[in-house]
Amino acid sequence: MLTSAYIDHTLLKPEATLKQIDQLCAEATEHKFATVCIQPCHVKYAADKYSVRVCTVIGFPLGVTSTQTKVFECQQALSDGAQEIDMVINIGKVKDGNFEYVQNEIEQLAKLVHSSGENKLLKVIIETCLLNEVEKQKLCQIVGDAGADFIKTSTGFSTGGATLDDIKLLRQYSPKHVQVKASGGIRDSNFAKELIQAGATRLGTSSGVALMKDIPTTSNY
C-alpha cells in the first residue's frame, strides 16, 4: 500500500529557489512525507524554519569528489540539521574493481552519520543504470558491510532511474538490515506501488503530492 510515509519529497534542481523550498516543506508537512530531500545549501534554512525531517545529498550527482570532501560535506549537513544523508558512491572506482575504496568511503560516512545522534540515516546511491548485474550484487554486500541503512538506485540525473528489476535485485542481495530506496522516474502511483511490492521501503520523487492524488506527472526525479 502506498502511503506518504514512503516518500522522500524531493527538490534537487540547481535552479530551486527558497520559495520552492518553502512550498516543498509545506507540502511535506501537510502530507506527512518521510522527509524533504534538498540540496545541502538549503538544509539549514529548512531545518530552522520547518519541523519536517530533512534529507540531503552528498557528492551529488556524480560521486567523484574525494572521500575527504564527502566527509566535510556530510559533517556540514549534519551540523546544519540534516537527519538523513544520501551519498553517491564513486562509480569509477567500482568499474576499476576498487571496492575497498568504495567500502571505506561508505564506512566513514556511516560512522559520522550514526555518531551524530539517534535516528540519523545514511543512504547509498549506487546509480544502477551505470552498473552491470555483478557490480550491483557486489555493492549490495558492500553497503551492508559498511554499515549504511539504505541502498538507493539512482540520482535521477543520469541515464536512467528506478526499475522493478533493480529493486528486486537490491532487495534479494542486500542484508536484511539494509533497506531499499527507489528513485528516478517515479511518476505515477501504480509504478510506486509496484516498487514497494518489489521491496522498496522509501521512494525518492518530486511527484509526491501527485502520487498521493493519483495524478500522473512528467518529472524526471
Strand content: 15-25%
Given this structure, which CATH class is correct?
Alpha Beta
Helix content: 40-55%
Please tell me how large the radius of gyration is.
16 Å
Order of helices and strands: EHEHEHEHHEHEHEHEH
Characterize the biggest β-sheet. Answer: 8 strands, parallel, barrel
CATH architecture: Alpha-Beta Barrel
Strand order of the largest sheet: 1-2-3-4-5-6-7-8
Q: Which consecutive residue ranges, at least 5 long each, have pLDDT under 50?
A: none
| Distance between the amino and carboxyl termini | 21 Å
Catalytic activity: 2-deoxy-D-ribose 5-phosphate = D-glyceraldehyde 3-phosphate + acetaldehyde
Enzyme class: lyase
GO molecular function: deoxyribose-phosphate aldolase activity
InterPro entries: Aldolase_TIM, DeoC, DeoC/FbaB/LacD_aldolase, DeoC_typeI
Protein traits:
eight-stranded parallel beta barrel, 221 residues, TIM Barrel, globular, alpha/beta, 8 strands
